[in-house]
């Protein structure tokens, strides 16, 4: 599905710290309930993180803090040592819905980040086309998002994220509005992309299977205010046939138990 | 099929017209369609008609442009900025129910009897409709669209150009299209006095002279002007909002 690229991609050494968030706390109203409390996360060059938690626990809030769309009340976010106070050009975000603009063609959606950065029209179009080709979306360039299936739309959103040569990818439940079959396909697709580009990512999800399939490390976010209550290493990650393995199911069971413990407040 | 339905509708209208003109004075007071259209056809060859049409179209087009230029950006700003909206919304919604047409004497006092007053009154009425439609449309835009573009590093100007303007366009065009009817109605009203140019003047003057054929030339002219404006706005929307026509293939 994914075509070979002509361009070379930055590869981080596995040990290098890409993103470091320390003790993030957030509440929306001055005397409202806390949403996040003391959340810390360190993303290395070879890492992929899956953050799992029930709906409404603060996953999107965490992702918004990591990319600088929101500011924490306490704590800091640093990308390669640089404090994040606003969106950083090397951090790309994929949202669940509404990520693509309905009034732009697929090609113009993919090229939008480059346009905002001032890349000349010819160059950004060429890059967008190239990325669409690599991601198996050739032929959709001049369509509008409404003319694509939900799965194709999310692939375009991923293309848009990758075209700017990001150093970190943040994904907010990117597949949760898709049907089960398409969702599984796109999970494989993301894994293929990761194997090819090796861009570290943080993916938040409320799906146990998705977390186990896509996270080298799986974090459990729970409580009110939410904190990271469990960090699980997932050594089977990276194998496209992981889903069929016993170790996958064992890992999913362990994660479910962790979520149950968290729900009971242990 | 669509064409057939339109022809059928036109035929029905002509038929009703015919019956009415026969009932009221047998064509002497209300000209029948043949008389009216032949008078209209004949007037197309006179500079008099084109002068009136040019005056009317000029006024209404200028009014529409003015209304759009003022109301479209203001609607976007109100719809997208809570702070601005908090101050301006009460002002807009207190004055919104006031029928702006009753302000005509005030507008005439302030801006004189000439074209300026006529244009201002039409723009005021049309502008309100565009303003409210655009403001509501932008306010209902899902904020995730803005977040997603902001995450690409967009500044205020980028958000305006890439998100707010295109999101507002269909709302603005809907209001403008519906407003063409109102605009021509107000045009007729403001042209019925203090001017000797315009289709509204032509109608009222012919009426006063008991020249019912000329009167119908004016009425047909204004109807066609309204229809042409409606279609022009449709066409503009067609070109500027291409994504609205995109269908799943
Ligand atoms: N902009 C906001 N203003 C006020 N409350 C918010 C805002 N965004 C999120 N919240 C609240 O914060 C909590 C966590 O929301 P969110 O991060 O969207 O959860 P999740 O993504 O895990 O479903 C929810 O209770 C939600 O109502
Ligand atoms: Mg969420």
Largest sheet descriptor of chain B: none
Percentage of residues assigned to helices of chain A: 25-40%
Give me the count of strands of chain A.
Answer: 10
Beta-strand content estimate of chain B: under 5%
CATH architecture of the domain at 16-90 and 189-266 in chain A: 3-Layer(aba) Sandwich
SS elements, strand count of chain B: 0
Give an overview of the whole structure:
The complex is a heterodimer of chains A (266) and B (249). Chain A is α/β, with parallel strands linked by helices. Chain A has a domain at 16-90 and 189-266: P-loop containing nucleotide triphosphate hydrolases (Rossmann fold). Chain A has seven helices and ten strands. Chain A has helices at residues 59-67, 106-116, 121-134, 150-163, 180-197, 208-214, 246-264, and strands at residues 17-27, 34-44, 48-52, 74-79, 82-83, 91-94, 168-172, 201-205, 217-222, 227-233. In chain A, strands 6-7-8-3-9-10 form a six-stranded mixed β-sheet, with helices on both faces. Chain A has a four-stranded antiparallel β-sheet with strand order 2-1-4-5, covered by helices on one side. In chain A, a hairpin with a 6-residue loop joins strand 1 and strand 2. In chain A, helix 2 (106-116) crosses helix 3 (121-134) and helix 3 packs across helix 4. Chain A starts with 16 loop residues before the first strand and ends with a helix. The mean pLDDT of chain B is 92. Classes of the chains: A alpha/beta (266), B mainly alpha (249). The interface between A and B is medium-sized, with 28 and 24 residues. The structure holds adenosine-5'-diphosphate and magnesium ion (MG). Magnesium ion binds next to helix 1 of chain A. Chain A: Residues 19-248 form the ABC transporter domain.
